Amino acid sequence: xxxxxxxxxxxxxxxxxxxxxxxxxxxxxxxxxxxxxxxxxxxxxxxxxxxxxxxxxxxxxxxxxxxxxxxxxxxxxxxxxxxxxxxxxxxxxxxxxxxxxxxxxxxxxxxxxxxxxxxxxxxxxxxxxxxxxxxxxxxxxxx
Length: 143
Known about the structure:
- This protein is 48% helix and 19% strand.
- By secondary structure, the chain is of the alpha+beta class.
- It has 2 domains: 1-45, no CATH class; 50-141, Winged helix-like DNA-binding domain superfamily/Winged helix DNA-binding domain (Arc Repressor Mutant, subunit A, Orthogonal Bundle).
């Protein structure tokens, strides 16, 4: 089986699986402007598996590993202020660690949309959290 992942203009991603020939035909259809129509069927894209999580953890070192370990030990999430206090810095330096984590997530999963950490909240009350679909793997790997 071969997989073709196509990012759509609205941020969604279509994934096609089939034989090499089937996937090549779909790719050619996109090139010719006659791509298959999105029927609205929900397509579940599996980004994190036990193997991709293991590959990801093996790529980490230093502050990347330290930050992921901290979040995993806290159940997968922590307020931004706690992350700053734990890491001992903030701003651009912290952004560099987060950027490295994203780069390694893409590398480990071979998927452009892969993220391991995200943030949520409102100004003044943000928190970082581990992708909930990846968290069980990291809980096991980072005991």
